[in-house]
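Hypothesis: this fold can be encoded by more than one sequence.
Test: take the structure tokens below, design a sequence, compare later.
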């Protein structure tokens, strides 16, 4: 049904001569499924999996992208009201490049990536981050996860409870440092959403999580990407250990924004990213299925480790 409906829309928009070639699903996420196909040029169609009540997600993201001159090559948007799938369908030019990895991260790519990130995060507004909202979000996501753990992995439930209690206490004790101006953030800055082009340029993709928050949300997510790229703790690129690049990134942010509490805020945001990932996994699967036990266990262990003051890897030199 998906292929037929997208083909109908594409033919309607681009003309009767339009013909989809090699239609295939290439990705699946919390907010969107991603399909690729060829026309007179190669395109990527994003089918949002949000409910119809959230069907304006793509439109809102596009508005922010265009407002800040960050728009990728958007070809067309089919609003939910215009198609049988009742989901926004966003058609983009498929970017060309390789996913960022330890193999292609070098000084040139790093410098270009910093430029792209600052282009996003320099868009700030006077409204401050609300620490109480961070606490409510953490309680909501961890509460849903906790309920599933009690049913399916009860041995992990006490650890999550203790972790969240410690994080909430840390948030309350350090409330003032979290009241920073909100920045535009990518919202899903895993390494899989950074491409390196054949000429070594960094390109950010998958902008549907675009919102306003502390830019530490993006920096924490990026660090999680590094850890997943290198479970052993070290991962070497062409120029220097990836860990060194991350320290450099934090120092650039410290200087650019005169940010003296970036490490302290990341100490909260990093485990929050892991908990948010588990929450998203469970939502996508409709609960804690058996095939997710290993991944959920790993994510929660990493969250506890991150907040268990084993933070010296980056904080000692940042």
């Amino acid at each position: 049904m998906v292929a037929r409906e997208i083909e109908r829309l594409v033919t309607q928009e681009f003309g009767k001569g339009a013909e989809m070639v090699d239609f295939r699903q290439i990705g699946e996420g919390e907010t969107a499924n991603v399909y690729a196909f060829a026309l007179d040029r190669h395109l990527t169609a994003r089918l949002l999996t949000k409910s119809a009540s959230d069907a304006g997600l793509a439109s809102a993201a596009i508005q922010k992208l265009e407002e800040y001159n960050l728009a990728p090559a958007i070809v067309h948007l089919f609003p939910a009201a215009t198609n049988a799938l009742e989901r926004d369908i966003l058609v983009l030019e498929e970017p060309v490049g390789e996913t960022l990895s330890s193999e292609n991260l070098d000084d040139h790519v790093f410098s270009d990536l910093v430029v792209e990130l600052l282009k996003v995060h320099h868009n700030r507004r006077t409204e401050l981050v609300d620490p109480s909202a961070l606490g409510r979000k953490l309680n909501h996501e961890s509460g849903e996860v906790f309920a599933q753990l009690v049913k399916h992995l009860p041995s992990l439930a006490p650890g999550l409870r203790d972790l969240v209690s410690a994080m909430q206490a840390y948030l309350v004790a350090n409330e003032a440092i979290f009241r920073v101006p909100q920045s535009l953030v990518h919202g899903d800055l895993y390494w899989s959403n950074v491409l390196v082009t054949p000429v070594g340029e960094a390109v950010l993709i998958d902008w549907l999580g675009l919102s306003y928050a502390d830019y530490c949300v993006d920096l924490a997510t990026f660090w999680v990407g590094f850890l997943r790229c290198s479970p052993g703790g070290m991962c070497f690129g062409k120029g220097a250990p990836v860990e060194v690049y991350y320290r450099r990134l934090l120092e650039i942010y410290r200087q650019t924004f005169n940010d003296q509490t970036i490490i302290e805020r990341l100490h909260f945001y990093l485990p929050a990213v892991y908990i948010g990932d588990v929450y998203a996994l469970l939502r996508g699967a409709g609960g804690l299925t058996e095939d997710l036990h290993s991944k959920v266990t790993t994510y929660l262990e990493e969250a506890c480790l991150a907040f268990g003051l084993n933070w010296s890897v980056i904080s000692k030199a940042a």
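The longest helix spans residues 262-285. Residues 99 and 195 are 5 Å apart (CA to CA).
Hypothesis status: open.
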